[in-house]
Amino acid sequence: MPKASPFLSLLLITTCIAHGAAGDAIAADPWQEPEVVQQPAVVLAGEWQLLHQNTGVSAMHMQLLPGDYVLMFDRTDSGPSNISLDALSPCAAAAPTAAGGGGGAVDCTAHSVLLDLRSNALRPYPLATNPWCSSAALLPNGTLLQTGGFSNGDRIARLFSPSTGWVDLPSFLAVRRWYATDILLADGRVLILGGRRQFNFEFFPHDDMPQLTLFPFLDETTDMDAEDNLYPFLHLLPDGAIFVFANDRAVVFDPYNRGPIRRLPAIPGGVPRNYPSSGSSVLLPLRPDSPSHAEVLVCGGAPRGAYRLALRNGTFVPADRTCGRIAPTDANPVWAMEEMPLPRVMGDMVLLPTGEVLIVNGAATGTAGWELGREPVTYPVLYKPDMELGARFEVLTASNIPRMYHSSATLDTLGRVLVGGSNPHVGYVFDNVTYPTELSLEAFLPPYFDARLDGVRPRLVAAPADVGYGEAAAVRFEVPGGAVSGGPEEVRVAAVAPAFATHSFGMNQRVVSLAVGTVAQLDAGLYEAQVAAPPSPSVAPPGYYLWFVLHAGVPSSGEWVRMRPLGAAT
User: Where's the Glyoxal oxidase N-terminal domain (predicted)?
Assistant: First the structure.
């Protein structure tokens, strides 16, 4: 069993939690006057599986790719990794580390690996430039666009596919991008926004000369001592506008006319939610019965000033435990606040095919940054957005591996959540530290993997290879028990866009529920559902999605379906 955190005593109902002050400062004693908060009893649902004890690299960045591959990569300046390049890959001069070492040495180790989900095999890939704290988006053709980083990588755009490996586009970016965010737009372009001291955005692809557009909102939301607005949360809304959250504020803007639409209310409490006070955020699933409506969820973070206290005084302030939920598409959006069972900073939020949200990884005190987090939160929490307020959170089975700074998590084709990374050190450090560099890869199986649900678990037999917007499509599936439980209304289909996961944010992850028409029985236990593809590229940008069939609330494994760009040939 994992070591118990002071924030969760197994099977106890009450816990004393101290909240940091909401404002520009924190009380000198952050533990004074603790508030007693009622918690639900712990429910030990879900299961952990160890896929690899040693992947060779610490998974700072993670992306699921079409074809059932998972790309994991780290910095190139942290010293040698634990996996060698193959004999055909050239060695490179090791980059200087943040501590000043490395330059001049020859590095014959890999800093990126590709996991084949079908065989569980790992393949190393060479990385020529440093992608430390970079951003990415999956292009409509299935290639990963990866942008920025540090040192020799800060103005690089990179393309990755399993067949070609990494291809650098030197000096593609107009400015250095470190801690920026990428988002795929409805027209198939990628918006690249922000980064350290970059209050602007640009696009991929661009004409001969990259064009910068100023974005003053990022300047306005910069805290002098900690920034607290790096890796801004970006979500594409179903009207084509972009929701941007930075620090504790949000705006909606038009990326095509490059102008603001409106400012939204600040999230109550004044708690920063972006790096290094790293909370997380998701766009909740879009539904066919209200295609123009969208809701955003933002959870966790660290009180203002927590980074300064941890860095200068070694004082680790309790993380925030609140979530804010807002519908930016409403005429007068307002935040609805609720509390997680556990405080959490550096947590990852992963959308599941059921429409629920898994919150995993992170710490209960401190912030992101080298050695600045304490008290790992090893218990995942399931958020159920359709339940009544007060009944939306469920605490799940804990891992025995702390996942602190530089962890990542993403959904895979089977519906599992892959969890890797954790390295709060400048280099790879395995001994004589509180939280060693973590090279393992786990899979968390959400409660829908419970064997007692096997009798209703569907198996997806056939889905279209590609589909156009608004088109009808047939999806075939089997039900082990032979009969659809509860009738055709118990059948749903969800399209899930895979995320680029890094630094507590899954860029571009998206769940779109599809309208299901008739469900016909073709044979004993075999069914065909007629579904309508997403209505527009603002609801589902072009590219690759995993389609899952859900029967009685239990999802199948996913099948890759490509949403054709508007005007593309069938």
Answer: 60-448
